[in-house]
Amino acid sequence: MGFSEIIGQDRAVSILRRLWSAGKQPQFMLFLGMPGVGRKLAAVSYAQALLCENPDKSKGACGVCKTCNLVEKGGHPDCMVIDFSYQQKMRKKDSSGLHLTIDTLRETVSLLRRKPFSGPCSICLVDGAEDLTIPAQVSLLKILEEAPGHLCWIWIAVSEDRLLPTIVSRANFKVYFQPLDEDSLASVLIKRFGLGEEQARPAARMSRGSLERAQIIMEKKSVKASAAGPAVSWTPAQALTLSQRIARFRNLASARKDVGEFLEELELELLWLWRDKPSPQQLGRLEALLKARQDIEANVTPALVLEHLLLKLG
Ligand SMILES: [Zn+2]
Could you read off the pLDDT of 87-105 as tens digits, one per residue? Predict the structure, then answer.
């Protein structure tokens, strides 16, 4: 796919387009930003542009040649993607961990040192670089230091704070990806999920700029849709129940993680209940829940967050 298909990241795309058309390929780039904002899509587009059989000078990769297709499907021999699927493939057993480990990378070194099979260069994408354990980062750092000239690295991470400083300092280029704005996210939801504007808009609003989060909301909603049947209408009695539920939970819970999960569940439930046309009051309640979740993530005391939420919900 060409660079123009990356929606809502004009600044990052214009940097990548300029780098690519200048023909001076940085050897090591960091793509930084929250998940679900187009980092992987941009990395794949960039890899396609480097390897494409019929690239367009202004648009990037053609998106339709055999090479572009293979890169997109993760099957091109000159474009390696290191992520949890790769770990599963390399280790088969015992691969369900929370981290990408050094064991996964044992054979990677020789794979990365070999010459490109067909294209002018080879590319290694590390998707979720913060998931690499420290020893795994160190082992890749060694390869980075001795990297053969034909190898281009793109590491995708949430932020540079989660990577070894020595790795961050080696990056020739950092490309920052912003949370998607509401319009961009809604347009992706309409285009890819076939949603109507009235469904896409609230989902985009609640997803805080992340398509990944929007997908989770969509999935949960469809599960609830099949379980819950037809739409349930919201009544003042249920509003009372909402406050009661939060109050009850406040008395039981202390762990930040539990509170975060409880608020997320509640938010998804309300998104489902109010999926058609939320009233201004309902939108206000959703905003209050969203703010509470943000406070939890920002390390505000959970009891305080719940207390404040209850006050806001009245
Ligand atoms: Zn192509």
Answer: 888 776 555 566 788 888 8
113 C-alpha to center of ligand 1: Å? 25
Contacts of residue 125, defined as CB under 8 A and 6 or more positions apart, other chains included, come to 40, 43, 44, 47, 79, 80, 81, 82, 154, 155, 156
Ligand 1 centroid to Cα of residue 27, in Å, is 21
Residues 279-302: tens digit of each pLDDT: 788 888 888 888 898 898 888 888
The rounded Å distance from CA 65 to ligand 1 centre is: 4
Please tell me the distance between residue 51's alpha carbon and the centre of ligand 1 in angstroms. 7
By the 8 A CB rule, do 126 and 156 touch?
yes
CATH class for domain 3-176? alpha beta
218 CA distance to ligand 1 centroid (A)? 32
Cross-strand partners of 173: 29
Arithmetic mean of pLDDT, 171-197: 90
Q: Find all residues with CB under 8 Å of 230, minimum gap 6, and list them.
A: none
54 CA distance to ligand 1 centroid (A)? 5
Could you tell me the residue ranges of all domains in the chain?
3-176, 183-313
Ligand 1 centroid to 1 CA: how many Å?
Answer: 8
**What's the pTM?**
0.70
pLDDT tens, residue by residue, 25-58: 899 999 999 888 999 999 999 999 999 999 998 8
